[in-house]
Specification:
This protein is an alpha+beta fold and 513 residues long. The protein is built from 14 helices and 18 strands. Strands 11-16-12-15-13-14 form a 6-stranded mixed sheet, with helices on both faces. It has a 4-stranded mixed sheet with strand order 1-10-9-8, with helices on one face. A 4-stranded antiparallel sheet has the order 4-5-7-6, covered by helices on one side. Helix 7 packs antiparallel against helix 9 and helix 13 runs antiparallel to helix 14. The chain is globular.
Length: 513
């Protein structure tokens, strides 16, 4: 393995001469959180989906396609799914992937010892219930459901759930995960993890791909480089300098304002409409924020269109709903929202008895968009007479606060959910049971369950519209826009592309000298 860890000072000074043609260098703005898929964030998901594989995965068009399972059959009543594992699928330690491994992963994730946040998606509490998993032979695994459910395949493919199949060798005898171990069946295997500096993945020479085209995270995942180095560069300006100097090959999440500059320096820029939701979160359990009149006053103080235009340079439009413009379910009805109106804002503040109490907006400097959205929000709220204070935290601290629900307002971002029901599933819930739930509304949860129980497109769309109407009434958060996917890449790369799922894909990419 070629080991290449570059210090930021070396990047700035231009001391290195560039990565070799057999190493693809991808920028990360922060380190991964672990290798078990449970302690996760967006960066962790990105890296580990190169190492591990889910049974099925989302395609570019947001349909579900094959990956570790080459095919599947569904019973007439929609309650039984029989998957056939990909022929030749092998773990990085040389063991074949079997149906028993799938069952082991399923049982481990759903055990009391593992705090897997996706358990509610499969235990019946949100409508979908897996009653048992059977292994009739080495390559066949059968999932039995309590009832038919339109979201089952999508939840298996859910990027954030990390329902990938790992080798049981990743676990100790007591079932606990071996730290820094990652034995999967993907096209790359874990080489070295230099904490805070880089994660290096090596090409898995015995990878047996599907005979279907690469699409999204599905299909052929053949690696065309020997190594992928995810280089941790927290500062965006430093990362751009490294890209232009040839020290980084892929810079995901380029700010739209920098597209012209990047292209002027010879970089290729790839962009598409995205599904990553950028909202302002409001803690409705907070003494002040619990008053819907105050939440509506805050909404009326925000010029949503101006923020979306400023932050995306016209690549994204304002959208406060949980249904993205890139979704087939979206239409103009999802744009209904208590929009910019300072007179209404001030009138509601008076009605709520607001007396200038400070309202703290948490943000961080790690993610440029979150920080700038926080700055813009503070200025707009102050203009309406709201005593808004900006608190800039370390990203890890802000994330911990989000996980615990300890904030008044947060400038935040959700990585892409590829079905609207998945995004609503993240937002809706009981805050006592799940502090990350932003919205408690029993009727909205009932409608969400209905949306999961039908495959009829028009019925699902109508249900999503009803949910959105309830969200307009409650104002549990302020949706700003869906982040456009904009990556800047070296002109030496071939085969690199972006997709609405907004996850970097290093397979299928080659690099010239």
């Amino acid at each position: 393995m070629m080991k290449r860890t570059l210090a930021l000072s070396a990047l700035l000074a231009g001391l290195a001469t560039g990565a070799a043609a057999d190493t693809l260098v991808v920028r990360l703005n922060s380190d991964i959180r672990g290798t078990d898929g449970v302690n996760r964030d967006a960066n962790t998901d990105t890296v580990l989906h190169h190492v591990f594989e889910t049974l099925v995965a989302f395609r570019d068009d947001l349909t579900v396609g094959p990956l570790l399972a080459e095919s599947w059959e569904v019973s007439e009543d929609g309650k039984t799914y029989s998957f056939t594992l990909r022929e030749g699928a092998m773990f990085h330690n040389g063991d074949p992937v079997t149906s028993q491994d799938v069952k082991w992963n399923w049982e481990r994730r759903n055990s009391e010892e593992v705090d897997w946040f996706c358990k509610p998606y499969f235990d019946g509490s949100q409508g979908l219930e897996v009653t048992s998993v059977e292994t009739p032979d080495e390559r066949t695994v059968v999932f039995n459901l309590a009832g038919s459910n339109a979201l089952f395949l999508a939840q298996l493919a859910n990027i954030q759930c990390n329902m990938w199949i790992a080798s049981p060798e990743n676990a100790n005898d007591d079932g606990s995960w071996k730290q820094e171990t990652a034995i999967g069946s993907g096209p790359f295997m874990l080489g070295a993890w230099e904490k805070g500096q880089s994660i290096t993945l090596e090409k898995f020479a015995d990878y047996a791909p599907l005979d279907t085209p690469m699409s999204g995270l599905a299909g052929d995942r053949t690696a065309k480089v020997d190594e992928v180095e995810f280089l941790i560069v927290p500062d965006q300006s430093t990362a751009e300098t490294a890209l232009y100097a040839g020290q980084i090959d892929v810079l995901p999440g380029l700010d739209a304002a920098k597209i012209e500059e990047a292209e002027g320096k010879g970089m290729a820029v790839s962009s598409t409409a995205g599904l990553s939701f950028t909202p302002i979160l409001i803690q409705t359990d907070d003494d002040l924020m619990s008053d819907v009149r105050l939440r509506r006053a805050i909404s009326h103080a925000v010029d949503f269109e101006a923020i979306a235009e400023a932050r995306s340079y016209g690549l994204a439009e304002w959208n406060s709903s949980a249904v993205a413009q890139a979704s087939a379910y979206f239409d103009a009805d999802f744009r209904e929202w208590p929009g910019y109106d300072l007179e209404k804002s001030r009138a509601l503040l008076d009605e709520a008895g607001y007396d200038g109490e400070p309202i703290v907006i948490q943000t961080n400097s790690r993610y440029t968009g979150m920080y700038e959205n926080g700055v813009l929000l503070q200025a707009m709220l102050q203009q309406a007479g709201i005593n808004a204070e900006l608190q800039t935290l370390e990203w890890a601290t802000q994330l911990d606060n989000y996980l615990a629900g300890t904030f008044q307002i947060q400038s935040f971002g959700y990585s892409a959910r590829l079905d609207p029901a998945q995004m609503y599933g993240v937002l809706l819930g009981d805050k006592e049971e799940r502090p990350t739930a932003q919205w408690e509304n029993a009727r909205a949860e009932e409608l969400l369950l209905e949306s999961m129980q039908t495959t009829d497109f028009d019925k699902r769309k109508a249900l999503f519209k009803e949910i959105h109407g309830l969200m307009v009434e409650d104002v549990p958060l302020l949706g700003l826009y869906y982040e456009p996917v904009v990556d800047a890449v070296s002109p030496r790369l071939e085969g690199y592309s972006v997709w609405p799922g907004d996850k970097t894909r290093a397979w299928g990419v080659s690099k010239t000298d």
